[in-house]
Amino acid sequence: MTCPQCEYTEGMVRTMPNLKPIVKKTVVDEIINSVVEMAKSGKIQPGNRFPSERTLADQWQVSRASVSEAMRALAFSNIVTIKPGDGIYLNEIPFDAMEAGMTTKNTSLMREQSDLLECLKARRALEGQIAQLAAIRATEEDIATLQSHMDKMLAHLSDSEEDLKIYVAEDFAFHQAVAQAAQNPYLYKAINAIWQATHRWIYRMTVISAGRAEITSQEHSAIFGAIKERDPAAADRAVEIHLQRIMNRYQDYFDTQTQEKNEPKRRKKSQDALAGK
Fold first, then answer.
1. Range(s) of the domain holding residue 150
2. Has residue 18 been placed in a domain?
3. Residue burial 244-266, b: 16+ Cβ < 10 Å; e: rest
4. Residue 83: helix, strand or coil by DSSP?
5. How confident is the model at residue 101, as a pLDDT?
6. Is 82 helix (H, G, I), strand (E, B) or coil?
7. pLDDT tens digit string along 21-78?
8. pLDDT single digits (tens) 56-66
């Protein structure tokens, strides 16, 4: 028996129609989907508190780290609320919104969003302290190095691919130079690990956000100016403003991505409703 819709070459099946892509799920994806299914079926109700992460890990027979990562992703999507020292609670979420926002395709985006924003929070905690120390400890050579990176960034503000690559490289080098100027090797190692985890996102956001290089160069100028003027408080404020704006830009990007992923499904539901299905 042969498939009438398949294409054959010398008796071998070359293509088969209507095959759905196979989505590789991780343990975290499975946990997220499990929580959503329990909420949709009514097994857990809005306001209910979940068991501890350790208990959930035992019941699901997974690692506690996987449970923690899944719950952070759910919290970023406002499905649950994490109250430190208290517990994790299910939020009141309309069924349609939950169904649209929690498709298998979206779980990886949620986890990526969660990881990135956690990295940015860690950056904020460390870089503020680093900038303050740099304002106190920077040598004249450090100041000259920072000025050099600033000059190179300002010289490559266009949206051409080559300029963007150079700008992002100098952006990274500028922050490394600030950390070097702080003269604390432990802080430098800690922040460098975080930069490595987020570096590809810096390039991606610079590429897709028209005019972003010019905006961030102004933020870098404020950081540099505070360090040059030996003003630790101003350096800390400048870093806070810089990283908060980065977090806002990333949040806007993820919100847009989620809306675009959900739009075909919303459109189909509207069409079905109009057709009386």
1. 113-259
2. no
3. eebbebbeebbeeebeeebeeee
4. strand
5. 47
6. strand
7. 444 567 888 888 888 888 888 888 888 999 999 999 999 999 998 898 888 878 766 7
8. 999 999 999 88
CA pair distance 250, 204, nearest whole angstrom: 10
Instruction: Please tell me whether residues 201 and 142 are part of one structural domain.
Output: yes
The answer to whether the beta carbons of residues 126 and 188 sit under 8 Å apart is no
How far is residue 224's CA from residue 272's CA, in Å, rounded to a whole number? Answer: 57
Q: Is residue 265 part of a domain?
A: no
Name the domain boundary from 99, 124, 150: 99
Q: Any idea how long the chain is?
A: 277
Assess whether 94 and 129 both reside in one domain. Answer: no
Q: What percent of the chain has pLDDT over 70?
A: 70
Question: Which whole-number Å values give the CA distances from 77 to 36, 58, 136, in the listed order?
Answer: 12, 25, 41
* Domain identity same for 95 and 117: no
DSSP element (H, E) containing 115: helix 104-137
Does residue 270 form part of some domain?
Answer: no
Residue partners of 78: CB distance under 8 A and separation at least 6: 91, 93
- Structural contact between residues 71 and 90, judged by C-beta atoms closer than 8 angstroms: no
- Given the DSSP bridges, would you call strands 12-15 and 80-83 parallel, antiparallel or unpaired? unpaired
pLDDT in tens, 148-157: 999 999 998 8
Phi/psi at 236 (nearest 5 deg)?
-65, -45
- CATH number of residue 255's parent domain: 1.20.120.530
Instruction: Tokens 């740099």: give the residue.
Output: 134
Question: Could you tell me the pLDDT band of residue 230, with boundaries at 50, 70 and 90?
Answer: very high
